[in-house]
Give the backbone structure.
Amino acid sequence: MNQFVSLTFEGIANGAVYAALGLSLVIVYQATRVVNFAQPALALIAAYTAHTVIRATGSYWLGFASAVAAGTLLGVLTERLLLRRVQDRSPLNAVILTLGLLLALRGLAGMVWGNLQHSFPPPMSFRDLEAVPISPEELFALASVALVAAALFVLHRFTPLGLRMRAAALRPESARLSGVRVGLVLTAGWGIASAIGALAGMLAVPPLLSPTVLDAVFVYGIAAAVLGGLDNPFGALAGGLVIGVGLSYVSGYVGSELTTLAALAILVVVLSLRPAGLFSRATVRKV
Amino acid sequence: MASSLRRDDPPATAAAPARPAAPRRRALPVLARHLAAAALALAAIAALTFLVGPLEHLRIARVGYLLLAVAGLQILVGASGQVSLGHGAFMFVGAYTTALTVLHAPAVPLAGVMVLAVAAGCLAGVLVGAATARLHGPYLAGATLALAVGLPALALYFSDLLGGSNGLRFALRGTPPELSGLLTDNQWKALVVWLTVLTALVVLATLSRGRLGRRMRAVRDDESAAAMAGIPVGRTRVTAFVVSAGCASLAGACEAYLLGTATPSSFSLALSLSLLAALVLGGLGSLWGALWGALALVYLEAAGRELADLLGLGSSVADNLPPVFFGVMLVVIVTAWPTGVHGALRRLGGLSARQRTPNPPSDPPSITTTGA
């Protein structure tokens, strides 16, 4: 029973990280109809930036801030310099573009910082508290992701920028005619998404940083996003928690080697029942 | 919804009545022509192996099996329009089938091992294809991504049977004794790999010229229209997946045969992504594109290593040079050069042909009498 409780808490905390990564994918998908396969690479570069800053200054929180800033900048640059050029063409182009960026940035990280593992500090202690089987590190992950999700909800629902973002995503032409600067709004969306991705990276990386560290996490993140339906931010949050708790049980009771396959199994079962995710709505396809 | 990453082959609707007035130069049936071309190619490669050194034999063999894997991906992505990020996983299936068969049933001949590998790959393809047949675009890519990362972990979980992270090691006979004076072991293996690959390519080329290929292109170009025209969309998509997985599995079997090992680390996510990169670099839509892609995979890696050695750069730079190059190439191709190498070559060929004839024949009219 004790193991069950502690696995559940661990799963929820991990799920928060997957949910954050899924959220960043969903924001980009909502705005530009592109799944950003380069997201783990952007987060990786952000984490390496933090690593360098922490080494130089000794302050974790300075590193954290620099990671989020680097993530935002990378997202903005990707949208402005690259994605905009393939935006009007088929979805396959965008997929291949972001995959290319993933390969290139991951390789670049290996070139600059080496393929070996570096130690990477967690934001807070990873030892469990006495009263409940959850550590300050896990609490921090949960709280920060919850805060980000709430802020995102407020932004979308109650601010002019959020209104413009929704307008630009739903009807770009009409939004442009009503005076929304669609290009700028899309760039803002990419920047926000990439900042959240960097946060997910900072939470997922400890204790060891290497160029491939985010591969598995990204698989879980994309599973979370796909599970909830790529169109729905709340779906990504729910999907992240489902994946996190499910994988925690698999890892605890069956074997940690099988977690990725378990993610695949969850994905296949859910998607074969609902091919566009748990929270999808029916769409009309034109011939 | 034809992709603007332009493919060389015409869209399915225009495929049947193309060039109505051209003289019928098709004296031989398609299969016979493909077989003749494969025999010629095998002879050329055999001749090539006598001209180059033993290190090159391994590289030639590597080009062969990567060509097969990329060609299988071509059927899936180029012809049927499904994106798979998980083809390394099918190579994993083929390699481990080979290793297990050789270790536990040494009496099975090599051809039998290869057939078993194809069967195992097709089975995996049926399972994955059927499970993902209703998924589209990013959803399919996400599921196959999980497959690419997850499947090699099986070797760690069943470490007694599959050897854990060290993988399986086995010994295979090299050159048969009758030919031992003539061919070295590596030369023999390179020829066996290429014989296998060319046989599979003949099957692939013939399939994609026939009804299956036409159906796949129709499904790719417009799924709803294809369904209304009576094409079984789901079955066509699964068939494409099965053919493609069988090719990748056979490629994995060739790799295991060549190296005498099967390790989980050689079937990483980077491999799956590199295969897709090679496909796009070579050019979507033609099996020739797969050849340019496979050549690029092997020789760019070698060139990167030599360049890093020459400049005295560390191993971390040398190891990462090929993926960085491929990544940058993907970005450049998608933004600036959508037809890939094969498209560029064809355009060159078309230009020179046009310069030679004084009055270039006008392009066939875009609206032809369909169904004639």
